[in-house]
Design a protein that fits this description.
elongated; DNA-binding; homodimer; Arc Repressor Mutant, subunit A
Chain lengths: 110, 110
DNA sequence: GGTCAGCGCAACCAGGAGGTTGCCCAATGA
DNA sequence: TCATTGGGCAACCTCCTGGTTGCGCTGACC
């Protein structure tokens, strides 16, 4: 279903956003269900705050994460729908392959 | 399990390989379970054979696809294990998020 | 009010990604 | 044998990406 309308967030853009170890790390940290500020996420990352900001923008652009300004800080939290969609996409590819293989096998064996 | 030992193929590299519409298209075509040559895959893609070759190298490097030289042509076919691994990774992230949310909710409500 | 912490914006830079062209090599098949 | 077909290799180009630094702004706190 994915009702929350991830329009424009193509699977490619989601995969691309996940295709970076730093961003995967950020996603891992954000998957604790809590909100995190930028400096908090920067902590322990051997990167500038600006670099982390850019990564968060990429994640946000892919719909993996949402930003919310609270006072002087930007809070980010995960939006798991995009992840679910990406997983569904992979499931579909897998299924397609499985079925194709089954058909080929059946065609040979009969 | 994923016994075929996809060592070195980090999730990030798999996601990165999938993070391109052309490569997603190639994966879609290859998920018919058959082997395809390069010129065959180039057909209808508005790209040079060389460009497609590079994309296939990326897919191969991520373990999504294998090459086999037969006569004068290179045959490619899908290796679905990498896809399954990527999907499992996303499932793990989703589960982690679900559990975290459940814990937070329980902590609030009691 | 002044200071500090948290960010945003813009400029800049090096390296990699995606793509092309040109050339050459090996199989294939008439 | 010889033309054709499928590919590999290398050079080259452009644009995007990941990263930095510098600066200025605003909210929090004493």
């Amino acid at each position: 279903m994915s009702r929350t309308s991830l329009r424009g967030r193509s699977p490619a853009s989601v995969f691309s956003a996940l295709g970076d170890t730093t961003r995967l790390e950020l996603v891992a940290r954000l998957s604790d269900g809590k909100q995190h500020s930028i400096t908090e996420l920067t902590d322990g990352l051997a990167l500038t705050r600006q670099a982390v900001t850019k990564h968060l923008q990429v994640l946000s652009g892919a719909g993996l994460v949402t930003r919310k300004r609270i006072g002087r800080e930007s809070r980010f939290d995960m939006r798991p729908d995009a992840i679910a969609d990406a997983r569904d996409y992979l499931t579909r590819v897998s299924d397609q392959w499985d079925q194709a293989i089954a058909r080929l096998r059946a065609a040979v064996e009969e």
